[in-house]
Every structure is written in C-alpha cells, then in structure tokens.
Specification:
CATH superfamily of the largest domain: Periplasmic metal-binding protein Tp34-type
Helix content: 25-40%
Oligomer: single chain
Number of strands: 10
Shape: globular
CATH topology of the largest domain: Immunoglobulin-like
Structural class: alpha+beta
Distance between the termini: 37 Å
C-alpha cells in the first residue's frame, strides 16, 4: 500500500509539472485556486494536455525497437534542458530524460494504447531500483527517468489489451 501511495504521489507530481509550466506561460491562475483539484481532475487535465501533442516530435530521439509476440515496441527519448532539470530537482525529482514507448501491432502497424506497461532502467546508477509504471500519454506510454550511465538498457514489461505478458529490451547509448 505504501508503494502504491508513493507511486500515486510521484505520478501526481510528474503530471503537475507540465500543468504548472503551462499555467505560468498562459497566466492561468484558475488551475491553482484553493488547491481544490482532485486526482481525477488532475488525470483528466494531464490527458487533455497530451491530446494531439506530438510525443514523437523533433526533440525525441529513437533509441530502438524490439518485437515480441506480434507487438513492436519503439522507445523514444527526450533529454531535458538544464532549466527543466532544475525545476524538477526543486520538486524533489531527479529526472534528466523523458522516455516514451510506443506499441504497435506487428502486422497492421496499428497503435496499441490500452493496457499496462512498466520500465526498468539498467546501467544508470542503481540497477536495483523498481520498475516505473508508464502512463498513457497520447498514443504512447511515458515516464521521467534519471539516466546517468553511458550504456543504458531499457526493460519494458507489459500486459497490453490482449492480456498477454511481454518483455521488451532496448539498448541506448547516452551521450
């Protein structure tokens, strides 16, 4: 239960950062009045923020792909700039990168956007850390991570919409 609470609070903080930046840039003070926003509203607003947002844009680099049991996983990474890293540190988060994983049916190429996925980062400091749950963002699943090492391996465990468990692995050279 404690791990679930910590994961839930971490998810809230991760989702709040873009909303705070968005409100600051647009002068929207209503989002923060009285701190009345409940978690359902936070999830809804975060989901709305990512609607139509191209999570595969120029600021993302493709790390690689892996295919398992008819599903292709494509891993894309965005390196945070110094300003974003500092803002996240101020919030108690040590993320240096944003990782997105896009799943597609191998035959049709259709995006798979239902199910659960988790990411374990190996080769970046503490390999004993537990996997991070990936959150649905647009047509992919994403999370913030701290990548310190040069040779990184992303292990992605899934249980997608077909109910099958799959394990994907993609290597990344962090320069």
């Amino acid at each position: 239960m404690k791990n679930l609470t910590i994961a839930f609070l971490t998810m809230f903080l991760v989702l709040s950062l873009p909303m705070l930046a968005l409100s600051a840039s647009h002068g929207d003070q209503d989002m923060h009045k009285g701190h009345e926003m409940n978690m359902d509203n936070a999830k809804e607003k975060a989901h709305d923020m990512h609607k139509g947002h191209d999570m595969s844009g120029d600021d993302f680099v493709e790390a690689g792909k892996d295919t398992q049991d008819g599903v292709v996983a494509t891993v894309k990474i965005k390196t945070y700039d110094e300003e974003t890293v500092n803002k996240m540190k101020a919030m108690g988060m040590a993320a240096t990168h944003h990782v997105m994983v896009f799943f597609a049916d191998e035959k049709s190429g259709d995006a798979i956007v239902a199910g659960k996925a988790a990411l374990k980062v190996k080769g970046s400091g503490d390999d004993s850390a537990k996997p991070a749950m990936l959150m649905l963002m647009g047509n992919g699943f994403g999370t913030d991570v701290n990548l310190e090492g040069m040779m990184i391996t992303f292990e992605i465990g899934t249980k997608l919409e077909d109910g099958k468990k799959r394990q994907f692995e993609v290597g990344f050279h962090n320069m």
